[in-house]
Amino acid sequence: MGILRPSANPSRVAAMSLLRAIFDSGLKPGAPAPTFCLEDQNGKAHKLSDYLGKWLVIFFYPKDESFFCTKQACSFRDESELFKSRGIEVVGISVDSVKHHEAFAASSQLNFPLLSDFTKRISEDYGVLLPFGISNRVTFVINPEGKIASRVQWANWFNYGKQVLAEVEKLQASYVPPPPAPEPIVKAKRSKAKADKPATSGDV
Questions:
Q1: Which of the residues 26, 79, 140, 183 has an alpha carbon 20 to 30 A from that of 124?
Q2: How far out from the chain centre does Cα 116 lie?
């Protein structure tokens, strides 16, 4: 007779499956970064194309003013000079409104753009929209070509900025930019006068 094993708790299995789906979802390195056009806390529009040719860190986070989100955002604020000195741009994205972002940036003295994904479309495009309608805490590093270079999900909230900075520095050190496109070859055109000139005995 076989050994009877207790059946798995269906609720636990469903919860684990959901967590696995959540944390395995999203864009992977090498994929083109989805385009976006979103307003920051000051009402200024930002597009992905604005950052082509630069290293860009996009950190998605669940909610303005929450404890861990504040610690995460402030860790980027505290490392902002180092990010700038290495030519790295930083933006945060959540589904909060521009007004909420304005208050959050002011209360935490944040010195980088917080983009409002109020329609939740960009969070969905990046694969980080959770079933209950907020963004998952995921950071993407985008290289100068506009491709996903890395995805950072697990990090210490209190020194998140330092860990992401170290990750981008490693990527920068190994990055090989694509060769420039070859210039088109332009064939010289014979002048019409010379082309139409009849051949003479001296030309033969």
A1: 79
A2: 14
pLDDT digits (tens, 9 = 90+) for 58-69: 999 999 999 999
CA distance 95 to 133: 8
Residue 139: CB atoms within 10 A of its CB come to 25
Is the separation of the CB atoms in 22 and 127 below 8 Å? no
From CA 135, how far away is CA 116, in angstroms rounded? Answer: 11
- Global pTM reads 0.78
Of the candidates 166, 142, 163, the residue with the CA atom closest to the CA atom of residue 153? 163
Q: For the stretch 140-168, what's the b/e string if a residue is b when 16 or more beta carbons lie within 10 angstroms of its beta carbon? A: bbbbbebebbbbbeebebebbbbbbbebb
Residues marked as catalytic = 69
Helix (H) or strand (E) holding 159: none
Q: Which residue has the tokens 């090989």?
A: 176
CATH architecture of the domain with residue range 19-167? 3-Layer(aba) Sandwich (3.40)
In 3D, which of 116, 115, 99 has the Cα closest to residue 107? 99
Span 117-135, average pLDDT: 95
Please tell me whether residue 156 adopts helix, strand or coil conformation: coil
Q: Are strands 55-60 and 88-94 parallel, antiparallel or unpaired?
A: parallel
